[in-house]
UniProtKB/TrEMBL annotation:
Residues 34-188, 222-364 form the Sodium/calcium exchanger membrane region domain. Its main location: membrane. It comes from Propionicimonas paludicola. This is Ca2+:H+ antiporter. The chain crosses the membrane at residues 12-29, 35-54, 66-89, 101-122, 134-156, 168-186, 216-236, 248-268, 289-312, 324-340.
Length: 366
């Protein structure tokens, strides 16, 4: 009975993203009716679940930390393509689009994904245990990237306003890409053992020792289906964005809330995968997904928009507002206190989630 069930699951996780991409092609660039938007929304959710499934298949084959890296980078690459497409389209005010999207990704990953993962793991297993050295180096890289690209533009004086000059943007792009590349090298080659799930005694756990890894053909099939599913997730999120924008406007919320909602939808695959890993007591995998997604969002977005800025007439506003900087500072301090011991109680999960709640609330009522 197990084989038919697995086959049906694979068929479902492949067919739904394919249909979602067809819907994306039909609805892209137009004004679809409400019923078609509802259908697209249903397939958007299905594509998220399919993406998580295929990411787990690939992760099981390649092992950690490569598995979480695949999902984080895949989502971010497609997300960056969406940001650049919107900016080059010239529709609406896009000067703060990159900043708002990247900052939303940082806050959602540092506080939302981490907080929910710690809460789930600590609730089920008494304590959430992870490698402090690996998580600490990842967090340090996220904080450094955030400061270089989102805080410094508020204080530079070469250009008026919270923007970089061309030379400063080029430096930030090279520094971001270099830092992200060095971290990936450290995570996957130099000190890979620091990013493996750990047991309660701090020793690395063997990844899924009781489960047979998928075949090479099944892995490549899942990898292709993962990319299709992620294209569907990000693309349909863009299709749904006008309806989201209309709803936000009707509620009287600031326009930045649209970016927050879109970021929440785009980061759903990582969020679900991280919580599922935490439920299996593999908190380090959850931390890899959270901090890896934040890093990829900055390390890949800033260099890309630096190149795209050649064709964008308006200056890019990257500097955070004062309230956003305070939230980033508090989140960084709390994250350091959470990561340093290498284990966390449910309290730490609630603290991070409260910071996410504060960010979401102040986005609605700044």
């Amino acid at each position: 009975m197990a084989a038919p069930r697995i086959t049906a699951l694979m068929d479902w996780t492949i067919s739904v993203p394919v249909v979602a991409v067809v819907l994306l092609a039909v609805t892209w660039g137009g004004q679809p009716p409400a019923w078609l938007l509802a259908v697209a929304g249903a397939f958007l959710v299905g594509s998220v679940l399919a993406a998580v499934h295929h990411a787990e298949v690939v992760a099981h084959r390649v092992g950690e930390p490569f598995g979480s890296l695949v999902l984080a980078v895949a989502v971010t690459v497609i997300e960056v393509a969406l940001i650049v497409t919107l900016m080059l389209s010239g529709k609406g005010n896009t000067t703060t689009l990159a900043r708002d999207t990247v900052f939303a990704a940082v806050m959602i990953t540092m506080n939302g994904i981490v907080g929910l993962s710690l809460l789930v793991a600590a609730s089920r297993h008494h304590l959430a245990v992870f490698n402090a050295e690996g998580s600490g180096s990842a967090l340090g890289t996220v904080v450094a990237l955030s400061g270089l690209t989102l805080v410094l533009p508020r204080f530079t004086t070469s250009e008026a306003g919270p923007v970089f000059s061309s030379e400063q943007l080029a430096f930030a792009a090279v520094a971001s890409l270099a830092l992200y590349g060095m971290f990936v090298f450290t995570q996957t080659i130099r000190h890979r053992d620091f990013f493996l799930p750990t047991g309660t005694d701090g020793t690395p756990l063997d990844e899924d020792v009781h489960a047979e890894p998928p075949t090479l053909a099944a892995t490549f099939t899942s990898l292709a289906a993962l990319l299709v599913a992620l294209i569907a997730v990000v693309g349909l999120t863009k299709v749904e964005s006008p309806a989201i924008e209309s709803g936000v406007q009707a509620l009287g919320f600031p326009h930045t809330v649209v970016g927050v909602v879109i970021a929440l939808m785009v980061l759903l695959p990582e969020s679900i995968a991280a919580v599922k890993a935490a439920g299996r007591n593999r908190v380090q995998t959850s931390m890899n997904l959270a901090y890896g997604s934040a890093m990829a969002s900055i390390g890949l977005t800033i260099p890309t928009i630096a190149i795209a800025s050649i064709w964008i007439p308006d200056k890019l506003s990257l500097g955070l507002e004062p309230t956003q900087m305070v939230l980033l500072l508090i989140s960084a301090v709390v994250a350091v206190l959470t990561v340093t011991p290498g284990r966390a109680k449910t309290l730490q999960g609630w603290v991070h989630l409260s910071l996410l709640a504060a960010y979401l609330f102040l986005s609605v009522r700044p």
